[in-house]
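User: Show me a protein chain along with its predicted structure.
Assistant: Here is one chain, sequence first, then structure tokens.
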Amino acid sequence: MRFLPTEEQTAFAEAIDEIVEGAGGADVARAWADGDTAAGLALWEQFAELGLLGLRVSEESGGFGGTLSDLVVVFERLGYHGVPGPYLETVALLPVLVDDDTRSALASGAMATAAVDGIAPAALDATIAAHRYLVRDDTLQAGDPGEELTSVAPTRRLARLTPNGPSTPLAPGAVDAALNEAALAAAAMLVGAGERLLAEAVAYARVREQFGRPIGEFQALKHQLADVRIALSFARPLVWNAALRVDEADEDRAVSAAKVAAGDAALRAARTSLQVHGAIGYTAEHTLRIWLGLAPALSAAWGTPEFHRARIARDILPKER
């Protein structure tokens, strides 16, 4: 198994970095959190031109025809930059569930979102998405935005969906496959968010001083940052392992292990980064708030840690006779 990106994947990741930084970097997420979606929507259009939105759509349907490993590379970079918008729903979840015409529209840049009973009861950015769906009982149904909900992540605007139109039966196993892909994308985003939180903490520890010395020189702080580094370094191979085990018997367990490990690592990174930054990290003006909210939000989305731990337990423990 190859647990490292290929040259093509590395180049694609670098292109994502360049596009985001050229669009304003963290300012895109800050503006989105404050209700100004213009920069975020312009970034969405650039990614559509790059082919990112059709990553998991076949070439015959106008997409990129990428692999799950490609998905991991892309979503780690999206998490690192805290890019706002329903990328996970449009790129990872829905291509498996929608019809050919809609799939082609998504690959061309149409924005879509979804709510899934029991896993993701609220839809992200439902008021600006062109396509909105309810997934329940192995059926797909169009929905309209309803009650708005709050999120710990300032860039995540959630809403309940009310049914609108007939339900379409889905192929057996389609929902499970789509949810695994969504959970994998969320795990990759968590790794990316954790890496950004660690980078921000290390950079600040080098310039913030106490007792006439940079706080990064204190051994206790070094240990905390090292623990974050270790957690992220253990989580990333699990995410790659899950991407490479698609269609294998232990795919569910691999995805759940990746999601749990990535969530734990990102939450550790969030706690440590906040401690390093001190009171300034709590302020709404600091960009750290983007990832401080994203880590717990994504850890709970697309299957809570309890859900995924239970799925791992069911797979590894002996069945009762």
